[in-house]
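Figure caption, in words: inputs first, then the predicted bound structure.
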Amino acid sequence: MDKFTTLTGIAAPMPLINIDTDMIIPKQFLKTIKRSGLGVNLFDEMRYDDDGKEIPDFVLNQDAYREAEVLVAGDNFGCGSSREHAPWAIKDFGIRCVIAPSFADIFYNNCFKNGILPIALPQEQVDVLMKDAEKGANARMTIDLETQTVTTSDGESFSFEVDPFKKHCLLEGLDDIGLTMEKAGAIDTFEAHAAQARPWV
Amino acid sequence: MSPKTLYDKIWDAHVAHEAEDGTCLLYIDRHLVHEVTSPQAFEGLRMTNRKVRAPEKTIAVPDHNVPTTAGREDPSNMTEDSAIQVAALDKNAKDFGIHYYPVSDIRQGIVHIVGPEQGWTLPGMTVVCGDSHTATHGAFGALAHGIGTSEVEHVLATQTLIQKKSKNMKVEITGKLRPGVTAKDITLSVIGATGTAGGTGYVIEYCGEAIRDLSMEGRMTVCNMAIEGGARAGLIAPDEKTYEYCMGRPHAPKGAQWEAAMNWWKTLYSDDDAHWDKVITIKGEDIAPVVTWGTSPEDVLPITATVPAADDFEGGKVGAAQRSLDYMGLTPGMPLSEVEIDTVFIGSCTNGRIEDLRAAAAILKGKKKKDGLRAMVVPGSGLVRAQAEEEGLADIFKEAGFEWRLAGCSMCLAMNPDQLQPGERCAATSNRNFEGRQGRGGRTHLMSPAMAAAAAITGKLTDVRDLM
Ligand code: SF4
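Bound structure (iron/sulfur cluster present):
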């Protein structure tokens, strides 16, 4: 998995609440059996019209935000379907960090498995970051995972919470499965015990 | 011993390893797999030379992206991408030696209907699937939740999931339901009351007289939509109805094992003085038949209400409500019962079980759908379909002018060709009314099977009580 340490980049503002995974990547793009190549269809139905032409109003179609690496959004980001295609599409587009007042649980977890940092901050702080993002390409936000801070282009800083284990894995680019396999002994022991206690399972 | 909730008890029984910071490896008893969220996980196993750790606990069935029309056993009758995903699942099931129900098998169906039906889902288990509606299995008192594809790979390889414990939330529905009110109205009303993020970070236990009174099927409908309320999982403590449902199912325990299982299952309830981080109580009598008006499952109103205005809301919801109204093409103040529809979809893991089809057929019996309206029933599994045919329900639907389909997810997520056209409005028994969910530009109103049947007859959102 790709490491995430610090990032200084353009942030795209999307001041909408309840951005669901169907919006992030509509189901017609779930037909792939690969993880890559979904970036062009990120936010597809908001981004392109019926003829497949770009809708100029949509934030990621504006020149200032084509290279965005951060997304600032409203409450309950990533709700809905568990599709990991959502973080795959976000990452494939080039976005490595999403900031919102809150996230849906499964999406939040899925981000960490893909080297994306989701940051939940209080609404007032997200409002400040949203304003900063609206300044366009010259305003670059800095996210430092080690110190757990987001800094606006004006130098205003907010600190954020992140689970220490998830932080460690992201900083080091560690693969969960490999880590869990190191605990195979514990799993073996559990299985032996469960086979006695609940043999019908 | 300190008092525990049902969630605490199941959790404690499945922790295989706990790190100092509280991160746990939770052992998984049943892993359900389908064709859309698993190919990349199996690809990952192959690339790293890993095996499926417990193939006997892993069950695969294609459902999301399969056609629900006749002839689908032949891949040339599938769209190319469906055929590729189904072929990949066929191959992965075979190569890794996991249980499999192909489209040609009468037991095939929506993964969350097949699991309980075959007795894979049992009380006290941990159940996961790469699909958010895994919460359905919580109706059995099983801790069940959706996972992403990386986690699918993790469970395949290790039979565990890296988890931190959620908080406990109790949702109590007291008293009796009024006539015409169903499990779907309960679950939508709860989301209407708590919002789609109200359950985030929690596992919900549903309890109270109105929940006890529900059949297993109704309980599955309630738990199914726990995820729409933001919760990781929904649970209902097992009772006699649960045991009766499980008994004799192909993969349920038998004989002495059944007795042993029952002994444990009977301990699976929340202790009287257990701690709850959040409690919600709703009176069963206060729940009306509801529909959704917007593009979030929390946009719930009784069918007798009128379309709201954006400034009825506060904060970020004002903009969201305006966007919903525009998308849905609705004018504030209009009675919901005057909203005309083009399509009726009865099916999905929320409402594709036999009882749902019975409820819809009871309303449709001897009646016809409105002219010009498209209506379809997609049974949740091949076995549900066969039973509905045996009970004569299929004939009622066909005589009413409904298409009678093969089992699958179909228009619930519209990956297969069953889709709404832009601007088309659908009365649906599924669980998500997001923009574009049932087809680009399509407009979805969620409701119970009986309400969907009523809408099919009148061509409008309809109070089913007027037809009862
Ligand atoms: S029926 Fe709908 S909600 Fe249920 S598993 Fe299929 S797509 Fe998901």
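Chain A touches chain B through 57 residues (CB under 8 Å).
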